[in-house]
Sequence to fold (337 residues):
Amino acid sequence: MSVSPDFAPNEPATVIRVEHAFFVEASFEALFYGQSSTSLRSKESNLISKGRFKASWKLITFLTIQQIAVLIGVAGNIDLIARSFVYNRNIPGGPVAYQQRYSNLPFSFAALAGFTIATWLQDGLLLCRAIIIWNGKYLAVFIFPFLIYLASIAFSLILLIQTGQQAGLIASLRSIPVPLIFFSLSVGMNIILSILIAGRLLYYRHTLTRSVGRDHALRCLPFAAMVIESAALYSAVGLAQVVSLRTDIAVATAIEGLYGVMTALAPHLIAYRMSKGEAWTRNTMHDTVMEYADSPTKTQDLEQSALARNSGEVMKTLPSHGRASSITKVSPMEPSV
Fold:
């Protein structure tokens, strides 16, 4: 964005770019927080209208606590931007220096704490969902992600303690890059869990394809369901955040706002499927197969699908010059008018 030379700030272009990224960050936070708040109210209304509020009170409580944590983060970040860009603009080093030096102020510290708690809840939810989708089996697979989860909590606590000191965020960057380690551990665990969930769901869909046919398997487990259940969008944004922290601090600042509110958006998408009764549970695989086995109409559809697959396999084995005559012989009679 171009500005008049007479009114341009006397600062390097890189500094202006980082300062602009703070406003992009705040815009992301406000936009997606409003979306998640609307989503929470709609899910509560949906559960109440269907008479399932009592059965889902734990889910609503979890989402409400996380929503409050994100609200504290968004409000604190807005206050920090106002202090740094409006009330303390002339500090040596500019607004960026103010945010690093005075991030231990109450509202600023509360913002970091709010987003940190929301991250804990999101990571814990994804870990629990992965165990459920794996039907509680092969728990040894989740030992490593669980250890990463504990390590990310430990480093986030170190970050909070260091940020609360007199020097603010500067103290957390002097010895070891604690913020980068915390983000890397959290994002790494989410990527591992997303792969485990997506891989397991692909296995289930392959099994359903063999049991109930490809069309029915795709209907039970569409691509969008696998993306939501595995929190793939959250993992992708987190990966972009970690990479940009090492390559472009302005991009990292802008993505940080999106990543912060994605901690609430990803669970809301999962909860949306749960409120509609579409989320994957330990009994979904068994119930789906039994549903098709007990339904005469669906059983007939399965038989026709199997017949079509078998016919296709037979056609592949026939010579090319004999396929037309074979099709003529097995074709059904045309209905009489």
Notes: Residues 13-49 form the longest helix (37 residues). The two ends are 70 Å apart (CA to CA).
